[in-house]
Structures are given as structure tokens and as C-alpha cells.
Design brief:
alpha/beta; Quinone Oxidoreductase, Chain A, domain 1; Rossmann fold; six-stranded parallel beta sheet; 11 helices; 26% helix
């Protein structure tokens, strides 16, 4: 089969396109999916770069679990396609089913989620023509959306659902969402509005109109000279009950400053810098909660499917690339000059080929 192999930590040169990778076979309790589309995530880049650090050394080169990663590895967590093979113990009537794959490879509850395996990291993923997964994680999906549109959902939207659940966002509350033009950020805007919350978003110039169309009441420019003042103005004299952050970096203290007493700050990313500074007196005198969150539970994935099948979410497909151009897609992803999500299409061949 055709696939892109990640051969080690490093730059795009570590992504090797091949057309002679052995086809995987579904083992007991598994299904094989012919990949229609596979979405890109920040985790793909950070894993390739080994950028997750360790508890004792923020600059250490590690995978997302802060452990060594086995190479070569086929990345790609967000998979939409059709089952074309079943392993022992799986009924043959599943062959031909259109599915969306839950990428979280764990058994148990929330504690097990913290150290879960992740499709495309601890197990080969969807940047290939074929991928095998546990049968229970390949969910039949009934939707008029294309595979490319479906592949924009899994990681970003379950991560957002988990963040809002961890923070306990309630109807009528105000949430500040950072990175609102990206995958998780745009999911947060839509899902927070679905909960009946008021959304104030932070996004780059040129993307404000699109973020408002998703349901944000106000949008603040991420490059505002005084982010704290810009947020205060957008909040209109109110304070936010929740901040949902995927950016961190220098804006961390300003974000804490907009929280009401007893407010909740939930973080699931640090694309502007994972090491931050703040005055802890702000935290304890205002009795704030700092909440870490990553990925989503199997229950979150089931809720996501219900939203998709009810037509309650907009797929924000910003662009698609042939599998052979994954490195180009990742470079575009890193530049952030788009709104929503990028995907690769294993069924399409290299441009001009």
C-alpha cells in the first residue's frame, strides 16, 4: 500500500512517502479501514518534532506521552473511510460500513485516558491507504458529509468536548476561547454555543468574520498590543467564568486576569509556548481553578457522533492534499494561514502524477 512513514524525530525530511508498505491485516477483534481521508493535528507536528519535553526537562525530545517513540511510524489519528476486512471475532456484515474512527486507544475510565495510546503515535494511523483498529473504535456514521469533512472532527472536537466538560461550562456563562480559527478553537466556539454559553474569541487578523459566523459574540485580535485591555473591552465590563486555551505562551497572565472569582482556566495546548509565567497570587486570591485536559473520552466521541448525525456542527474543511504531499500539508498547517482543518486523501495521487 501507499503510506507516509515517520522515520524519526526531526523536520519534514523525516516523512518518507512509499508505495511498497505491506498491507496491514486485521487481527482478532479488529477491522481494517480503507482510508477515505485523514485529518492533520498539532499532535502530528509536535510528535514529529519530539516537542513534548519531560517533567524535568522542557526541551527533551519525546513523544506525546513523554516516552520514546517507535519508528518507523505511520501518523494520522483522524480517519474516515470504509471497512474492507474484519479479523476473527468480528462479524462479516461490518465489511462495507462507512466509519469514523475514535483515535483514543484505551480501556477503562478517565484515569486510563491520561496514559492512553493514540492512533498514529503508539499505533500506525491513517496517513496510508489502509489502517487497522479495534472494531469497537470504528463507529458506523450516517451523514451526508464527505470523508474529508468527517475527518476534520475526531481529535479536535473530542478535545474541545473534554475541555468544556472538565471546566463545567454551563448555559449562560461566558467563555474566552483562544486559537479560535484553528481546529480545537473553532470546535470550542461551536460546542460552547451549543451549550448556550456566550463566547468571546481570540483569533488572528483576517479570520474574525469567520469566527463570528460560528457563534462568537466578539472576537479579539491575537496580536492586540494589550490583550488584557482588548479582552476587557470585548467582555463589556463582565468577567468570564471560563477560559478555554490552546495557545498559552505570553498571553497566559492576561487570560487569567479576565476570569471572575472562582473562574476556571482549562488548557489543552501551548502552541505559543508551553512554559509560562504568572503571579500565583492571582490564582489563590481569586480562588481560580487551573485545569489540564488532553484528548477526549470514548463518551465524548459518542457525543460527537450524535452532534454530527444531527447536523449540528459545521465541518471546517480548509484544504485537502494527496497523501504523497503530506509534508507540504504539514508545512501549510504550521503556517496557520487557513481557517479550520486540513486533511490528506490517500486515494488521490501526487499532483501532476
Amino acid at each position: 500500500m501507499r503510506a507516509v512513514l515517520l522515520t524519526g524525530f526531526g523536520g519534514p525530511e523525516r516523512l518518507v512517502y512509499r508505495e511498497d508498505v505491506p498491507d496491514p491485516r486485521a487481527a482478532a477483534g479488529e477491522v481494517r479501514v480503507r482510508v477515505g481521508a485523514a485529518g492533520l493535528n498539532n499532535t502530528d507536528l509536535w510528535t514529529r518534532q519530539g516537542a513534548y519535553g519531560s517533567a524535568g526537562d522542557p526541551s527533551a525530545t519525546t513523544g506525546w506521552r513523554r516516552e520514546p517513540l517507535r519508528f518507523p511510524r505511520i501518523q494520522g489519528a483522524d480517519v474516515a473511510g470504509r471497512i474492507d476486512q474484519v479479523g476473527p471475532g468480528v462479524t462479516a456484515d461490518r465489511i462495507g460500513q462507512r466509519v469514523l474512527v475514535d483515535p483514543m486507544l484505551y480501556h477503562g475510565g478517565e484515569r486510563e485516558l491520561v496514559t492512553t495510546d493514540y492512533l498514529g503515535s503508539e499505533r500506525d494511523g491513517g496517513f496510508a491507504e489502509l489502517v487497522t483498529v479495534p472494531a469497537e473504535l470504528a463507529h458506523p456514521v450516517r451523514s451526508p458529509l464527505s470523508d474529508a469533512e468527517l475527518a476534520t472532527f475526531p481529535t479536535a472536537y473530542t478535545t474541545a468536548l473534554r475541555m468544556l466538560g472538565r471546566a463545567g461550562l454551563a448555559e449562560g456563562e461566558t467563555v474566552v476561547v483562544t486559537g479560535a480559527s484553528g481546529g480545537v478553537g473553532s470546535a470550542l466556539v461551536q460546542l460552547a454555543r451549543a451549550r448556550g454559553a456566550r463566547v468571546v474569541a481570540v483569533a488572528g487578523a483576517g479570520k474574525h468574520k469567520a469566527v463570528r459566523e460560528l457563534g462568537a459574540e466578539a472576537v479579539v485580535d491575537r496580536a492586540a498590543p494589550d490583550l488584557a485591555a482588548a479582552l476587557a473591552d470585548a467582555l463589556g465590563g463582565r468577567e468570564a467564568e471560563v477560559v478555554a486555551d490552546v495557545v498559552a505562551g505570553p498571553s497566559f497572565s492576561a487570560l487569567l486576569g479576565v476570569l471572575a472569582p472562582l473562574g476556571r482556566y482549562v488548557v489543552a495546548g501551548g502552541i505559543a509556548g508551553p512554559v509560562v509565567q504568572t503571579d500565583l497570587r492571582t490564582v489563590y486570591l481569586r480562588q481560580l481553578q487551573l485545569i489540564g485536559s488532553s484528548f477526549g473520552t470514548h463518551a465524548d466521541f459518542a457525543r460527537l457522533l450524535a452532534h454530527i448525525e444531527a447536523g449540528e456542527l459545521r465541518p471546517l474543511l480548509a484544504g485537502s492534499y494527496p497523501l504523497a504531499e503530506l509534508a507540504t500539508a504539514q508545512a501549510e498547517f504550521e503556517r496557520k494561514n487557513f481557517f479550520g482543518k486540513l486533511v490528506v486523501l490517500p486515494g488521490e495521487h501526487r499532483t501532476g502524477a
